[in-house]
Amino acid sequence: VQLQASGGGSVQLGGSLKLSCAPSGNVLSVNYIGWYRQAPGKQRELLATITLGGQTNVVESVKGRFAIFRDDFKNMIHLQMNGLRVEDTAVYYCNLKSADNEYWGQGTQVTVSS
What we know:
58% strand; seven-stranded mixed β-sheet; four-stranded antiparallel β-sheet; mainly beta; single chain
């Protein structure tokens, strides 16, 4: 299983970015796909998840600014980020959890400048 993350970049304070995650390969029993981020010197933190059934969960710290959704036609999971803040600067990772395994994408850098 491979997860290809893309869409990161540099943006001004208050700007928006849409990250994309393209999973490929065969996985039995996917629990959910999620987005995480890791800022320099900090632990990796969960941001949002989406199940195969489309149920979403966004953590409180970014709720109202970030949204996770999927494009079934293109087989992609997106993280829409609005109202970006300097503290959102981090490497963003997509993650797939199955019944017996966990997979990570390579990460995409998001930099927010004031």
